[in-house]
Amino acid sequence: MIKKIISIKNVGRFKNSAPQGNPELAKHVLIVGANGYGKTTICSIFRSLQTGDCAHIIGRKTLGVSDNPLVELLLDSGRARFDGTTWTATLPNLAIFDGTFVAENVHSGEVVDINHKRNLYRIIIGQEGVHLAEEEARLSVTSRAMTTEISALDRALQQHIPAGITREQFIALPFDPDINTKIAE
């Protein structure tokens, strides 16, 4: 558990920040504030602490500064420090419920299609469910493309089928090995 935010330097709008009075955090913390005040930046710092991926912080380096981002937190297990390249400790059991969590774990469809208009709206929660929904969407696109291709090939084939015979009957006709001779005659 994160007990305190000791300092954040050169990350987003936090050029050299330490909370006033440096209060201890509770087991569940709700971060609120106006737009542009660093909520997403704090979540990125916590996500980096959770995963050990420094890109979450490096991507939010304060513009116009040459110094590396630095973050220091107090955990139950001691201090965790990000020195601009790595964390001294990670917190894999940390849960962060933000826009990134929603994007990765809640699939509600990205487009409005006929099914939405018919009120067939679905919500999928959980990373595995989101991956399956994305795979289903990809397969639907592939299926529609293949159906279009099959329809075009069927129309092209219909031009060569004699009147009064179905496509299936035409395809079932036996192979004639002497067809070229018969055509020449």
Summarize the structure.
This protein has 185 residues and is of the alpha+beta class. The chain is 39% helix and 16% strand.
Explain how this protein is built.
39% of the residues lie in helices and 16% in strands. The chain is of the alpha+beta class. It has two domains: 93 residues, no CATH class; 59 residues, no CATH class. Strands 2-1-3-4 form a four-stranded antiparallel beta sheet, with helices on one face. It has a two-stranded antiparallel ribbon with strand order 5-6. The chain is rod-shaped and about 100 Å long.
Strand percentage: 15-25%
Q: Largest sheet at a glance?
A: 4 strands, antiparallel
User: How much is the radius of gyration in Å?
Assistant: 30 Å
Low-confidence stretches: none
SS content category:
alpha+beta
Helix count from the secondary structure assignment: 7
Shape: rod-shaped
Q: What number of domains?
A: 2
Share in helix:
25-40%
**Care to count the β-strands?**
6
Strand and helix order: EEHHEEHEHEHHH
Order of neighbouring strands in the sheet with most strands? 2-1-3-4
Mean pLDDT level: 87
Oligomer: single chain
Give the terminus-to-terminus CA distance: 90 Å
Secondary-structure map:
Layout (H helix, E strand, L loop, with lengths): L1 E10 L2 E4 L21 H13 L3 H4 L11 E6 L2 E5 L16 H7 E2 L6 H4 L6 E2 L1 H32 L8 H6 L6 H6 L1
What are the salient characteristics of this protein?
185 residues; alpha+beta; four-stranded antiparallel β-sheet; 6 strands
